[in-house]
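User: I'm new to structure prediction. If I give you an amino acid sequence, what do you actually give back? Let's try with this one:
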Amino acid sequence: MLDLAEIYWPHILFIFSIVAGATAAIHAAMTKEEVRSAIGWVGIIVLSPIIGAGLYLIAGINRIRRTVISDRRALLQGQIRAEFASYDATGEQVAGEFGQRFRSMKTLGDRLTRHRLTTSNTIVALETGDEAYRAMLQAIAKAERGIMFETYIFDRDQIGRRFVAALIDAVKRGVEVRVLIDAVGARYSVPSVLGMLKDGGVTVDVFNGNVITGLRLPYANLRTHRKILVVDGRVAFTGGMNIREAFSREISGDKCALDTHFKVTGPVVADLFAIAAADWQFASDEVLDASGWALDPPDTEPGQQILMRAVSSGPDRSLETNHKMLMGAFSVARSSIRIVSPYFLPDRELISALVTAARRGVQVDIVVPSANNLMLVDHAMTAQFDQLLKDQCRIWRASGPFDHSKMMTIDGRWSYVGSSNIDPRSLRLNFEVDVEVFDCLFAEALERRIDKAISTATEVTLEGLRARPFLVRLIERVLWLGSPYL
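Assistant: Good question. You get back a string of structure tokens that encode the predicted 3D arrangement of the chain. For your 486 residues, that looks like this:
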């Protein structure tokens, strides 16, 4: 047999390349929904059947097949479910308070997401790392029944150790604690924080990989970028804040990065819990019983402000949900679109939606950091600024430290905040969680922050972009070509 293989190995290799290449090309053509993605993968496979098929096997196939993706109504049973349902907002309520066009945003969210737009919520912006960490640690210290904590990065630094100590203390008090950390994010610290949590009795798991023996390559590109902390089912924290001292002025001083996190109460807390609980079940196979995690209805009466909805997205049944929400929001804008994003790499569809809105007379302002922690991403996003600037959109480079905040407002009425960046990774590869908020006062507060950033920012102009050296612009375009994987 070995002799035959030695003689006929070129023929065997040829047959294998045909079978592998054809299988991979057929799979790409039949499963990819984006024609450019399908053409790209088929082209790579045809040009190099074995290598191309291998690359497609590793990076091209979405293997996330979540057996249990349930919404709040599947988790909540009996009377609890009925009481939460009474907080659902109606289309008439949205139209009466915000206009008919925002009723269409409610309809879009109803059809895209698993979670309802609910009334009687509250949301408070925590504008610094110190403020956010202090509020989160205080909530953990007061926990009586359950803590569900999901995050992307949980560093083993001074801030991380404070959270570890608080979570261990909660376990000692008899509080049920679950901590879910992304496998890639857990590797930002070496050694990871997992050992400290486990040694303290905290039940912890990683999302999509084993950080001790190494990541499973086919899954490494699909990460949970969500940040959700739910305490006793009554208060939740979500937004862009990872757990690391780089965002603490107390520790990092003037070099600390900026970010914005949000404290919420109301029915939306149950939806955030449902999202995190589904992720926990996917990673650990443990089902968290809603009744045991204090998911009680809020104290406020149904029908009151603020209207909010949790929006989960990711490479499963929620693929591109955040992308579609943004498309819908841009389409209903009449006066203003205000965006703050650290990584701004929209695809062609989003660019078209933004420039179309600008051509309709909508003022489009996009604020990105002057100082970026990911220089390759910064160069890549600069390469496509001209596509927006030539069609009346305005782009601002905010001064000061790197700002990791993600927030958007439409017409001073509708806001969108959370973990999603406006880049290919957040819009297609990551598991993200955002919150849409129907409330004028909250939108006005965000816009004041955006106006303050713009007041000291440098406006990006077409003339300035084109005046830079050709080699710099060429390098940016080359990096832009690889932007889906940055």
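You can read the tokens as a compact description of the fold. Here is one thing that stands out. Residues 2-31 form the longest helix (30 residues).
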